[in-house]
C-alpha cells in the first residue's frame, strides 16, 4: 500500500519536474511579447534581465499608430477576416451539403478534385493567382483581391461533409416529403443542427484569415489596404519604428486570439483535429 | 436517394466557381508557365531557362539543401516532442492541466509575423534576453543572426515552438480514442508504464503520428515567413534560405514567374514524394 | 382519399437489381402491410411510392394519377420514418408545423391542423418540448402527428415501431389501428414483424428478395400460404418443416422418422419416390394416437407459460420441431413425448418450396 502510493507520488513529481519548466519556456515568448510592449526602448536593451511589464504600452502604441496608421490596418484585417469567414463558411457548407445529400453525375470527380488539393502546396497556385489578380484583373490592393481568392478551402468542405453525413438522412427525407424546398432544408434543418461544427469551422477560418501573411503581402501593398500582419512585417528588421512599438502591434494581433482560444478552446481543438479523422 | 444533378450543382456552383478560377486554372497555368522564359517580354517556350536551370543554379541547390536539413532535423524532433507532450498532458497525475495545456497549445493561435517579431527580438545578439540569460548562466552568448549554424538552429527552435502544440493536440485526440481498458488489462499483466507507452500507445498512435508527419513535411516544404522575417530574408548569406523563400524571391522580387513556377512544382513534387515515402516507411506490416 | 397502384415496378441501384417487378393494387382506405425479412426491399418500395427514390422501370399511380415524375411533396403522401426523423432543434409544435410553414400555409389553418393532430395523438402538453426531452413512444406520436398534419391521402410507415420496447410496441400498434379507424385513410405500412402485419393489416404483402411472394388477408395467408416461405414467415412460432418422400397413391413417408407414414389427400399427384417437405404448425399437433401419424420426439427445452407450453424438441433424425400444447405441462427437458399430426392440418411443399397441398 505505502510502496504503491509512494511510487505514484514520485511519478507525479517526475511528471511535473519535466513539464513545468518546459511549460515556462513555452510561455516565455508570449510573456516577453507582453513585457516588451510595455517597456521603454532603453529598457528592452538594458543589461539587466527584465521579466515584468512596465507601464509604457500606450505610449509605445501611439508611436506605432503615428508611424504606420496601425488602426487602419487592424480595421482592414478585421473586415477581411469577418467577410472571408462568413463567405467561406457559406460556400464550403453548401458544397459539403451537396456531396452528402445528393447523388449526381460527377460526384466522384468533384470529391476527388476538392480533396486532391488538400495536400497541394499553396505555392503552386500563388504565382498564377498573383498574375491573374494583380496584372490581368488589375485588382491589386482591393477588397476583392484580399477576400475572394482565399475563399477556397477544402478543409471546410471536409469538415461540413463530415458533420452532415453524421446526421440521419431520413431527417432530410422527412422534410422533403413535407414539401420543404432543398434550400430551406439546408438552411432550416441541416445548418442549425451543424452549429457546433460551424462554430469550430468559423474559428479556424477566422484565425487563418487573421494571421494570413503571404497573400496579403503580395496583393495589398498600398498602405490603406495593408492588413495588420503585413504592416507589422514591414517594420521588422528596419529601424523606422522602435521594437517596443512593434511589440504593441504583435500584442494587438495576438491577444484577441489568445482570449478567444481560452474561452472557446473546445472549438479550436475540434477544428484542429477535424483533419485528422479522415 | 433520387438522382438530382441540377440541385447538387446549384449548391456546388459558387464554391466550384472560386475553385475553378483561383485554383484549377492557376494549377494548369503555372505548369505551363514553368516552361516559359519570363525574364523578358515576350515570354517564350524555353524549358532550359526554368527546369533546366534548377539543377545548375547554386542558389536553388542551397535552398533545397537547407530545406531538407530543416526537414530531417526539425520534423523528427518536433513530432517526438509532440508525442511526449501529448502523453504527459493526458496523464491523470497532472495538476494544473488547463494551464499546462494552455502553455503548449497557445502558440497555435499566434500569427507568424507576431511570433517572428518576438523571436527576432528575444534572440538579438547584443543584449537580447536569450543571450542575457546565457551569460547570466555563465555560458557564452551566441551570435544568432550572423552565425550560420546558430541561425539555422534558431529557425528550427522557432518552428518547433509554433507547431509542437498543434501536433500534440492531434496526437492527444488520437490518445483519447484509445480505450482505457487496454491499459487496465496491461497493468493487470504487470506491464510497466514505459513498456505500455512503447508497445501499446505508440503502435496504436501510428496512423495519427504519420498524419502529423505528412502535415509537417508539407508545411516545412513551404517554410517562408520564419526565414523571411526572423533571420532577415534567409540570412546570414543564404544560410537559412528555404525553397519557399527562394520561390518568393524569384517570383515576386525578380518577377521571373516561369522559373518560380518550376520551383513551385518541384516543391509540390518533393512534398508528395517525401510524404509517400513516410507513409510507405510507416505502413502497417501484415 | 386515394388508392395506390404499382405496375411492373423495378428498382436497380447501379447494376444491382433490388426490386424485380412488383404489381399491386392498394384500395382506397385500405391498410396494407409489406412484410418480409430485412433487406428484402420493403423500404425501397415504400420510398419509391413516397418519391424519395427514382423508379427504374414500371409505373406508380396514386389516386389514379401516375406519379413517377411527381415531386414527393406533391404526391399527397405523408411518411413516418423508422428513426422518427424529428428535427432536434425544433420544439414538438415547430416539428409539426414546419412543413406547412415552409410552404406558406395560412397560419390559422396551420394552427388548426396542429391542434387537431395533437388532440388525436394526445400530445397537446408536449408541444413546447424538444424531441430530446421525449420518451420513445412520445417521439413516435410526434412523428405520426407530423404526417397527420399534412392531411395526406396516403400514409406511409417505414417500420415505425421497431425502435420501441415490446410493451410500447403493442400499445402503439393499437394506437395506429385506432388512427386508421378514425381517419379511414389509405395506409401502407412496412415491417419485418409478422405479428404487426397480422394484427394491423387488411391485406398483407409478403416480400422476399424484391419479389412479391403472396398477397392476401392475414388469415388467408395463415391458412393458405402459397409456398414454404410464406408458410414459414406467417405464424409464430413458425411452422415446422419435416423431410418427406412420396410413396404414391396419396401417401407420404416422413424420412426423418424411419418409415412413419401418413396419408395426405395431397400427395396424389406425386410420383413415388419424389422428395417433398411436410409442414405442420406448432399449434396444430394433437396428442399421440389422435391424429393420422405419430411422431416420437426428444424434448430439448420446455417453456411452460401457464396457459400454454412450448416444447423445443427433435425428431430421431435431429429435425427441430416446436410443439405448442396446452396439455403438455408434464413434459421436461430430456424427456420423450409423442405427438400426432392430423392430416387435415398438414401442408406439403415440393423441394422448391411450392405448395402441393
Ligand atoms: N441507396 C442504396 N444503394 C445501394 N443499395 C441499396 C440502397 N438502398 C437499399 N439498398 C439495397 O437494397 C436492398 C433492399 O433494401 P431495403 O429496401 O432497405 O430493405 P428492407 O427495408 O426490406 O430491410 C438491400 O439489399 C440494400 O442493401
Ligand atoms: Mg427498411
From TrEMBL, chain A:
Topology of this chain in the membrane: Multi-pass membrane protein
Listed transmembrane segments: 12-36, 74-100, 112-131, 143-160, 198-221, 241-264
One Pfam family hit: BPD_transp_1
Gene3D superfamilies: MetI-like
Location in or out of the cell: Cell membrane
Keyword terms: Cell membrane, Membrane, Transmembrane, Transmembrane helix, Transport
Protein name (database record): ABC transporter sugar permease
GO cellular component: plasma membrane
Taxonomy of the source species: Bacteria, Pseudomonadati, Pseudomonadota, Alphaproteobacteria, Rhodobacterales
Predominant cellular place of this UniProt entry's protein: membrane
Domain of life: Bacteria
GO biological process: transmembrane transport
Family that this chain belongs to: Belongs to the binding-protein-dependent transport system permease family.
Residue stretches making up the ABC transmembrane type-1 domain: 74-264
Entry coiled-coil feature ranges: none
TrEMBL record, chain C:
Pfam families: ABC_tran, OB_MalK
InterPro entries recorded: AAA+_ATPase, ABC_transporter-like_ATP-bd, ABC_transporter-like_CS, ABC_transpr_MalK-like, ABC_transpr_MalK/UgpC-like, Mo/tungstate-bd_C_term_dom, NA-bd_OB-fold, OB_MalK-like
GO CC aspect terms: ATP-binding cassette (ABC) transporter complex, substrate-binding subunit-containing; maltose transport complex
EC number: 3.6.3.19
Listed GO MF terms: ABC-type maltose transporter activity; ATP binding; ATP hydrolysis activity
Residue ranges constituting the ABC transporter domain according to the UniProt record: 4-234
Keywords, alphabetical: ATP-binding, Cell inner membrane, Cell membrane, Hydrolase, Membrane, Nucleotide-binding, Transport
Transmembrane segments: none
UniProt xrefs under SMART domains: AAA
Family named by the database record: Belongs to the ABC transporter superfamily.
PANTHER family for this protein: MALTODEXTRIN IMPORT ATP-BINDING PROTEIN MSMX, MALTOSE_MALTODEXTRIN IMPORT ATP-BINDING PROTEIN MALK
Protein name: Maltose/maltodextrin transport ATP-binding protein MalK
Taxonomic placement: Bacteria, Pseudomonadati, Pseudomonadota, Alphaproteobacteria, Rhodobacterales
